Amino acid sequence: MSEEKKTNPLQYLKGIGPKRAAVLQRQGIATLEDLINFFPRKYVDRSHIVDLNLLQPDQEVTVVGKIEAVGIRHGRRRFLYVVISDGKGILEAVWFNGIEYFKNQFKVGEWVSFSGKVQFYRGFQMTHPEFDRLGEGELDNMLNTGKILAFYPGTEAFKRVGLNSYTFRKIFYFLFKNMTVNVQEYLPPKVMGQRQLLPRDRAYYQMHLPEDGKILEKAIYRFKYEEFFNLQLMLALQRAHLKSKPVGISFPKKSERLEKLYYRLPFKMTEAQKRVVREIRKDMREPTPMNRLLQGDVGAGKTLVALMAMLIALDNGYQAALMVPTEILAEQHYFNLTRMLEGLDVEINLLTGSTGVKERRRINETLGSGAPQIIIGTHALIYNEAEMPNLGLIIIDEQHRFGVMQRAKLIEKGRQPDVLVMTATPIPRTLALTAYGSLDVSIIDELPPNRKPITTIWRFDNTAAKIYRFIREHLEMGEQAYIIYPLVEESEKMDLKAATEAYEHLKSTEFKNYRVGLLYGRMRAAEKDEIMKAFVKNEIQVLVSTTVIEVGIDVPNATIMLIEHAERFGLSQLHQLRGRIGRGKSKSYCILKTPYNIGEIAQQRMKIMTETQDGFIIAEKDLELRGWGDFFGTRQSGMPDFKIANPITDRPILEEAREDAFKLVKEDPFLRKAEHKRLLEYLRKHLKERMDLINIS
């Protein structure tokens, strides 16, 4: 017998045994606590089941019946059919895709539930319905009582050992009816009463064996609230912890170079920028480490604010590091900051994966010496062998693209440095309340007065000739244009091939009488800088680019941006790209060009882009379209992983939980009161690892 089987306590529960216990353990369910936290994926209410003789076309319904026939028909298209009957009527379900897989899911004589839209074609039909197989022993529950049935997530491993929804329901029935499940309430009585929360033990029972719809809703609310409350409590404790320990660096000295930069700027800073600089200066004077989020719309001037923060660090004798996710962005920041700081005697270094051995050695020596400077880099900053004992300020651009442990490694290189997090586009409020909830927030909520509205147009590929003619008309007026191509593959060869082909074609056909330039990701830094400078000087009229130009290029004379295959870009990326135009006096146009047939989500992205320029609205819509998990991609990012709550759809509950958690910590910052004893014990036992991640992120 394996060690896994020997030690797994679940094997002794009725309905589980050693084999099933081993499978459950491999899925992360190893204890009784894990098991009761394995929540259903959905519920089917008997009261919502429609008899088959009462069906109407275009209804969205759930039906239950016994399988009478399963087979494959051959007509214009091959398809699988499954006929069910409930003794009152019949319905046929059909599948045109995945026929071989679905054929093995159904057996004549078994009972199933189907959910979907009813159609009428020689009888009532459903196409590709959601389905659940029902065990023979639960038909009385399903058909003759008012019971609500829970349906659980399934895997191939579960299927092999017979762990289906019916089996889980039997396991939980035995567990709650015949055993004492020791569930301790840890939420404070004040919170329980204020939000009228179901007690924890009763909530677990209702999640698995619901008595009716209303009590089930209360149980679901309880656990959604609990997940949000736990996170918000950790964020509140983290903020209280940072404020209570003055172990960071104080920057009391006024920055002379900041003043010089301010007075020689060729434009006026917005009031919002000035306000945010004041907030940052105030933070940096304090001995507690700054932990601040800087956000604003595209073109709001975040980079200038970040630069001023770096000058404060330098003039107080410290080093400042700016970490960005890609080499292209690192180079663009380096070029821009070098130009802006010309004549101010500021040492700026660039460290990326492409930095040569000799240059890397020189940079490491100067970093190790503690000499005040700005170091700009990518992940190479983290893995660089040099220590930075005099690192006073870290600015992280596009923080969500770095893993939690990567950020921690950079922070560890300094002695409790101040941290300023920047985002390329505004943060959705939902995200600000969760992933960034422990940070102080500065918002640049004002665009420079010279920014004019941009007209955004969505066009199909068959209108290319008209689009190119429109661009030529504006070139004749002395204006400039970007033509952006998405990268098919992040590789040097594909990048160069895509860029070169587009460039050669346009240069020799549509724009043969104009000066066309080419910019792609793997160009040498000096060559790239040369192209950018030529575009700024209007020596290049049309810039063809397959690289990310969201940051770094500011050309007031560029009034048109054509984005080819716009359906391949995300909403935030499209918004960033669009932000490169509309910076001058002339009217600007962003043209989104796509094939005629694109997916529904891509269509929604195009419509949103044509309807609004508000980065905050776009950020919310992007989060809604992509969903919580896909918005971040990997768990490495340190973003919260919710089991039952959804920060997007459950935002009112999230805001309630945040209000309660921050109020509690304000009254009892270290959870020392008697009524918070169980809460503190729960945090220590269950959430220590997440507390550490929150602390880092």
The assembly state of the depicted protein chains is single chain
Q: Under the CATH scheme, which class of the domain at 454-612?
A: Alpha Beta
CATH homology superfamily of the domain at 454-612: P-loop containing nucleotide triphosphate hydrolases
* Structural class estimated from helices and strands: alpha/beta
**Helix residue percentage:** 40-55%
How large is the radius of gyration?
30 Å
Calculate the mean pLDDT score and round it: 85
Q: Any idea what the shape is? A: globular
Give the number of DSSP strands. 22
Q: Tally the helices: what do you get?
A: 27
Q: For the terminal residues, how far apart are their CA atoms?
A: 43 Å
Report the sheet with the most strands, covering strand number, pairing sense and barrel closure: 7 strands, mixed
Write out the strand line-up for the largest beta sheet, numbering strands in chain order.
Answer: 6-7-4-3-2-5-8
Proportion in β-strands: 15-25%
The CATH architecture name of the domain at 454-612 reads 3-Layer(aba) Sandwich
Question: Which regions are unreliable across 5 or more consecutive residues at pLDDT < 50?
Answer: 1-6, 632-638
CATH topology description of the domain at 454-612? Rossmann fold
